[in-house]
Amino acid sequence: xYQTEKLSNKDFITELRIxxxxxxxxxxxxxxxxxxxxxxxxxxxxxxxxxxxxxxxALDPDQxxxxxxxxxxxxxxxxxxxxxxxxxxxxxDELSSDDAADIISELPFAKKxxxxxxxxxxxxxxxxxxxxxxxxxxxxxxMAKELIKVNQNLTVFAxxxxxxxxxxxxxxxxxxxxVDDQDKLLGRLALSDLxxxxxxxxxxxxYLGDMQYVHVDTEDIEVGHMMQKYDLEAVPVVDDLGRxxxxxxxxxxxxxxxxxxxxxxxxxxxxxxxxxxDDGLLExxxxxxxxxxxxxxxxxxxxxxxxxxxxxxxxxxxxLFFVPLIVAMAGNVGVQSSxxxxxxxxxxxxxxxxxxxxxxxxSLSFLNGIILSxxxxxxxxxxxxxxxxxxxxxxxxxxxxMMFASLIGTLVPIMLNKFDIDPALATGxxxxxxxxxLGIIIYFNIARLIIGF
Amino acid sequence: xYQTEKLSNKDFITELRIxxxxxxxxxxxxxxxxxxxxxxxxxxxxxxxxxxxxxxxALDPDQxxxxxxxxxxxxxxxxxxxxxxxxxxxxxDELSSDDAADIISELPFAKKxxxxxxxxxxxxxxxxxxxxxxxxxxxxxxMAKELIKVNQNLTVFAxxxxxxxxxxxxxxxxxxxxVDDQDKLLGRLALSDLxxxxxxxxxxxxYLGDMQYVHVDTEDIEVGHMMQKYDLEAVPVVDDLGRxxxxxxxxxxxxxxxxxxxxxxxxxxxxxxxxxxDDGLLExxxxxxxxxxxxxxxxxxxxxxxxxxxxxxxxxxxxLFFVPLIVAMAGNVGVQSSxxxxxxxxxxxxxxxxxxxxxxxxSLSFLNGIILSxxxxxxxxxxxxxxxxxxxxxxxxxxxxMMFASLIGTLVPIMLNKFDIDPALATGxxxxxxxxxLGIIIYFNIARLIIGF
Lengths: 453, 453
What we know:
The structure is a homodimer.
Chain A: E1 2-3, H1 9-21, H2 25-33, H3 37-46, H4 49-58, H5 61-70, H6 73-82, H7 85-93, H8 97-105, H9 109-118, H10 122-132, H11 139-142, E2 148-151, H12 156-167, E3 176-179, E4 185-189, H13 191-196, E5 212-215, H14 220-229, E6 234-238, E7 244-249, H15 250-268, H16 281-307, H17 310-315, H18 317-321, H19 323-347, H20 354-383, H21 388-418, H22 429-451
Parallel strand pairs in A: 2-3, 5-6
Antiparallel strand pairs in A: 3-4, 6-7
Helix pairs in contact in A: 3-5, 4-6, 7-9, 8-10, 14-15, 15-19, 16-22, 19-21, 19-22, 20-21, 21-22
């Protein structure tokens, strides 16, 4: 029995490397038998590709397929590349249909077909081919074909016998689904009802009809929201005809929820695509450079606009020193407003009342703006000894800039969402940059009005 | 049977409001019986407090406790305030021990004791008092006391009888835990083994010892990582003596994972504390103003530093126009670097190799920096017609600023994490502001070297 602690990875890996280099397959297998497949996968990420492949080949077949599933996509690709279609088919045989389909979908087109042909269990191969049809971001792409279902016309007695037969293929039984002759989903059976009712009772008198289900085309995020909201551990999936075609379990949804939250955070930080800390340099550049170029172009626009005030500014250099402060505050306020909206949309907790939302953000900015403008006014007067004209310009500009920034920060994600564009795009560099430009325009115009140039 | 679709909330709520205002309790109860408790909770958030309380009182007792649990903290507080200790105790009686403890922990101190005294089931009251001892961010604070356990000295026959008895108190059976006479956790039973083995077999010959467990003091986030990594749907919790004291199920962990990701995102956006889109104005101000004040002070420092160059700048006003661009780029790069590190730390996917990490971020900034500096150089020359001295200053400054920004963006969260401070604090306004200051210092000094003033 083992508690999760940080593996003392270094010593363990050193020992393992020695075994790998001396090609001591028996000792490796013995050592790995004591290790959880998720830990083996983590260890393999620390090895060189060659060492990882050697280790993988040395694993017990019971473990290797689970390890394959846990690996990072990059390393899995290398290992799959090194295996023959027949070997891959054997690995898949140990997995459930959804996991097997996920792995096959990563293979090059030609190899996909070869692997499917090598799968011995015809039913399993058919299930996988079925699953490959669905978009990976939908309920169909997430579901497994393995589930327990019984026909409504069976008696309790026949049902229990049927359950015993089916349960061999299903790892975890979350629910027993009831279908009609056309396989249409009707409801579910409570295990307790099954155990306490007369054996001759027909299932159709026993099943519960009040259950949640999703359609194969339902988006994965939506399935996640639903399972969270209703605290479901599994949900059945139906096709256009209402037929039961699969089920989704909570462990798959945990990954979806986590990835969605990570993606929003990365977008807010100006990183597109799902990159991780250990991805390659080129992938990382691709994920970040476009944002930086956008920000640079935004910066150019801001410089162009402020340079139209060049003559005036030569007389009022002091004003220029405050530009970074004003635009930074605009950026911060905009990001704060948009983050709350983006998260509200992602979690489904945002109410439909756009105007109320906007009013709230504006009030908030007004409240914060009064305090911050006062600090800025007295700061400019006392710290920098600026004239009260300059201090007034700064205070009013900050106030105006904050109000506009929260207006943009609130409306842009809501509007993007209405047009079905990911609202998380609006946060991060995009909002910061557009608020920079807006901030400069507001600031210089207020300065012109107050100081006069 | 119902598929999740967006409730056509408005019509439904209008109808409901009419029933509430005409005090038609019977119709309300009938309407609500068809509605899932999670949906009722959502509907209540849309009503006025008075309407919500009326609706709550009208609910069937079977539903009301589940609805209470699903409500937002603010509204729950109002409803609890309106209930007597005895009524609260009756609501709690329908819940599992962890949920009941969560609700009690939100009560004012005096009422807590009164409610506990009103709970009829002494065992249940004791469980709740036990649970209240634990910090809410630990395994102890997350776990429920309801679980299925059997003594290793029982036979399969006695065990099955014991299971039937215990199963009445436990909603979902994820595992059967095996303990010794001192209640120490030994392992778990596979249901299939129980069904296929002779009834006289002692449990101690049957149980599986290879299982994960956590300690009551393990942090909730760590429990989440573990359950995700090992795909667990439930995990047992032990105390200092190794005794089985509770279990944590995946649905509680889903919330932990989601909240953690949300918190990181909010910190990156400059919002502290767990606020939601529908929180009050004062809570929102408290969550945002401190960051904005910090950013403003950072802005002041940046202004102070640049004003030491005031005389020189009067000769080179053109340089000042580019300050917002340079600092914005520093901010963007810093946030990109830190977001990847913060996420890597949060997901446990960051390797221990700090120097390798740093080298990677620096290479990335170098790569991006060359491209962006070239754009900036030619932009300044061609678009703005600046001298090549200014264009060179800009290009070199951008390069240097980007390298420093990624250095800070990488090291600050790693160091904070080493000192056990939440690394997410480092992202957002903090990194942006410090990079603003650093960017200005670098820019003016490079300008002085190249242009000479």
